[in-house]
Amino acid sequence: MGKLLHLLNQSELVSAIKSNESDVLKHFYTTNYKKVEFLILKNSGSIDHAKDIYQEAFITVWTHVKNDKFIPSNDTALQGYLYQIAKNKWMDVLRSKSFKSTKSLNNNILSFIKDEDNSEDLDLVNDKLKIAMLAFKNLGQPCKQLLTTFYFDKKSLKEIASELNIEETTARNKKYRCMKKLRDMALAPNN
Amino acid sequence: MKENNDISQELLEIIERYINGSMTSQELKDFNQLLELDKDFKIKVEDIKTMLYGIETQALKEQLDTFHKDIPKTEVKKSKYKKVRYLNLSKIAAAAAIIIAVGSIWFFSTPKNDKLYTNYFKPDPGLPTTMSSTDNFDFYDAMVNYKHGDYQIAIDKWKVLQERKPENDTLNYFLGVAHLANKSVSDAIPFLERSIEAEDSFVFLDDAYYYLGLAYLKEGNTELAKKNLSISNTKTSKEIISKLKK
Questions:
Q1: B51/A179 Cβ within 8 A
Q2: What is the pLDDT of residues A8-25, one digit of tens each?
Q3: Angle between the A127-138 and B39-69 helix axes, to the nearest 10 degrees?
Q4: Domain residue ranges of chain B, discontinuous segments joined by +
Q5: Is A129 on the interface with B (CB under 8 A)?
Q6: Which residues of B152-188 are buried (b: 16+ CB within 10 A; e: fewer)?
Q7: Which residues have CB under 8 Å from B85's CB, separation 6+?
Q8: Cβ proximity of B193 and B163 under 8 Å
Q9: A147 vs B contacts (CB less than 8 Å)
Q10: What ipTM, to 2 d.p.?
Q11: How far is B224 from chain A (nearest CA, A)?
C-alpha cells in the first residue's frame, strides 16, 4: 500500500473498496465501529448487537460501492453512509416484534432477528446468493483459499501460481475444478 | 438446473471476463447479443455472477471477524469495563443481600437483646446495712462489699452462707444479682431460678423474675426472657416486653 490510509480521499477509498484492498477495508472497518457501538449501546443494545449490525451494514455499504449504488459527495460521505445504514438497521431491530416482546435477548433471538433482517435486506434477499455463500463457507480449505485469493483479493493466476509454486496452467485448472465443486455444492442444497 | 452445472472452463472464463469488465468492446458486443438471444445462457451468466458475488461476500464476512479482533484497545477495554461493572453489580447485590440477612439476624436476635439488657440492667441497689443486726453480720458484711461494687468478694462471702442455707431465697436472689452485676450471666441464672421458687410473699419475687428475665435476654433466650419478665409485675419489665415485640 505505502499510502497513509487516513489520507485516502473518497474516490480512492471507493476504488480501494471495489478491489477489496484488505488494509483499506480493515482501516475503514475499525475506525468507524466505535460510533456505531456507542449508538447501539445507548439504545438498549449489547456489544454483540453492535458487532452484528455493524457487520451487516458494512457488507451493505461494500455492496453498494461495488455496484455503484453509492457515489460519495463529500469527504466523509462513505463513513456517514455506513453510520446511517447501521443506524437504520438498528432501528429496524428495535421496531421488530421479536425485540419488543423480549426483554432479555439471548443468542437465539439475536440470530432470529438477524435472519429476519437479512430476508428484508434488499442486497441479501436473493436465495441463490445465500446458497452460494453457504456453499463457499463450507467449501474445503484449499479451494476456499484459492478462490478467495482469485476472486476476493483479485490476484492474477500468475501471482497465485508463483505463490503456490505451481505452473500457471495448474492454477487455472485448480481454480476451474474448485468452481465446479462449489457449483455442485450450491446446486445440491442438502449438502 | 442440473444442466446449468455443465460449464466448460473456457465459457466460465469468458463469463468471468464479462462480469469483471475486462472484455474488448467487440467481445462485449457479441456477448450482449448472445444474452439477448439465449435466455438459458442469460440465466447461466446470472448464476455465475451470483456465485462470484457469494464468494466475495462470504470472504469479506469472514474477514470482518478478523478485523473486529483488531479494533482499537479502548473498545476492548470498554467492553471489559462493561462486563466488570456487570459482575460488580451482581457482586454488590449479593453482598447487599448478605449484609441485609446478617443485619436482620443481628437486629432481630441477640444483639437487640444485648442492647435491651445494657439499657435496662442496673444492679439491685442492695439492702441498707445497719450495724445493729448482729445475727446476719456475715450477710450484711457481704452486702457492704456488694454495694461497693466488689461483687466477687460479696459472691464468695454469700456462697459460704448459702451452702449452709441453700433454700434461703434472699441469699439466692442476691447471689444471682451479684453474678449478673459481675457479668457472669450463666452463673446468675441457677441462683435466680432458685429464688423464684420462693413463696409469693417473698419481697424480691418481682425483682427476681425481672433479673431472671434480663439474664435470659442476655443469654439470647428471648422466649424464657419474655416468660419471666411477664411474671414480674414491674413497669420496666413491661417496657422491655413491649420492646421485644417490636
A1: yes
A2: 788 888 889 988 998 899
A3: 60
A4: 2-69, 73-108, 119-245
A5: yes
A6: ebbbebbeebbeeeeebbbbbbbbbbbbbbbeebebb
A7: none
A8: no
A9: 55
A10: 0.80
A11: 52
